[in-house]
Amino acid sequence: MALDATTEAAPLTDTFGRRITYLRISVTDRCDLRCRYCMAEKMEFLPRSEILSFEEIDTIAEGFVERGVRKIRLSGGEPLVRRGVTQLAARLGRHLQTGKLDELTMTTNATRLAEHAKALADTGIERVNVSLDTRDPDMFRYVTRWGELDRVLEGIAAAKKAGLRVKINMVALTGLNDGEIVPMMHWCADQGHDLTLIETMPLGHIDDDRSDRYLPLDSVKRDLERQFTLVPLAERTGGPARYWKVERLGLKLGLITPLTNNFCDGCNRVRITVSGKIYMCLGHDDHLDLKSALRDGGRAALDRVLDEAMIRKPLRHDFRIAAGETDPAVTRHMSVTGG
Ligand code: SAM
Ligand code: SF4
């Protein structure tokens, strides 16, 4: 499909009229942990020859920014295991200075945050999301298969010291950390962190049965409402998160409930993998190849793929988690598209 220059510069809008303003970039599919709900213990990662260079990520990100993306999140895998990722963040940070981007953020497991927090803060990143499912060292080692809680806590403390705001992401897991939700709320309130609880999603083969661990957050919310006053906040991020102020604690609490509630109507995001694929929905396998387009046809070809992506973005995901169903809804792991 040949498009003239005017069409190519048009803001990204899908066929349902949703403006795409948020891009998640997975900068690596590798990770130094193996969280049980996310990965199998033995994982096959992409050969290095298949992954986008930082120059290519930068060019692709610029293509999105010029078409109206206002927020970029770097994720993975674990973004901080890719050497030089803070330099990539610094390059992307130029769009903050020009005012073309409102926010650049990162999601990290924080195992290496203590080394990188200062450099990240210098790039223009103001906020990081840190995954922390438990503050019990033994449970942390169990959930992540070998992680050391102390390193993560040091990373979080370093982020705070560097002036980064921290939002804790906690995947709610029946029988593992469900008893820690209220203590985690108190800790986050004391530390000045926001907290978001996440329902486990059926993405990629893992060794465990997800249905055993799936904890619907509408029941968690009902329990919390017996102890706390939750005041709904109007804030929307165009994703499946909804936010409340927990009055007594002064805590901002987010609930990400893609399974118990579907908020796809306001979806504003797409994701790119480290091999340059664009996924239009976390809950579908349909994708397009930006890397080949960029390598064969440069920015004009990239824009044509973005237009095609807007045509193919589906209305909604169709996740569900059924007892005993071991096949995930989507075979790709969360680490491929970075959440
Ligand atoms: N390694 C980084 C981290 O853990 O923060 C970034 C990548 S991780 C894939 C991004 C987020 O996805 C984390 O908060 C993690 O807990 C969450 N996640 C991973 N697999 C998930 C799943 N199957 N369902 C729900 N959340 C998941
Ligand atoms: Fe790694 Fe993050 Fe997945 Fe845990 S959730 S295995 S830290 S990518």
Helical content class: 25-40%
- The outline comes out as globular
**Number of DSSP-assigned strands:** 12
How do the SSEs run, as a string of H and E? HEHEHHEHEHHEHEHHEEEEEEHH
- CATH fold-level topology: TIM Barrel
Radius of gyration: 19 Å
Number of helices: 12
Number of domains: 1
Strand content: 15-25%
- What distance separates the N and C termini? 31 Å
How confident overall, as mean pLDDT?
92
CATH architectural group = Alpha-Beta Barrel
User: For the record, what is the CATH homologous superfamily label?
Assistant: Aldolase class I
With strands numbered from the N-terminus, the spatial order across the biggest sheet is 7-8-9-6-5-4-3-2-1-10-11-12
Low-confidence blocks of residues: 1-8
CATH class: Alpha Beta
Listed once per kind, the bound small molecules are: S-adenosylmethionine, iron/sulfur cluster
The major pleated sheet works out as: 12 strands, mixed
Class derived from helix and strand content: alpha/beta
Properties at a glance:
339 residues, alpha/beta, TIM Barrel, twelve-stranded mixed beta sheet, 12 helices, 33% helix, disordered N terminus, binds S-adenosylmethionine, binds iron/sulfur cluster
Walkthrough of the structure:
With 339 residues, the chain is of the alpha/beta class. The chain has one domain: Aldolase class I (TIM Barrel, Alpha-Beta Barrel). The chain has helices at 5-8, 54-65, 85-92, 94-97, 113-122, 137-144, 149-161, 181-191, 210-213, 217-227, 290-312, 334-337, and strands at 22-26, 71-75, 103-108, 127-131, 165-172, 194-199, 230-232, 241-246, 251-256, 269-272, 277-279, 287-289. Helix 2 packs parallel to helix 11 (290-312) and helix 5 runs parallel beside helix 7. The longest helix has 23 residues, at 290-312. The structure holds S-adenosylmethionine and iron/sulfur cluster. S-adenosylmethionine (SAM) binds next to strand 3, strand 5 and helix 12.
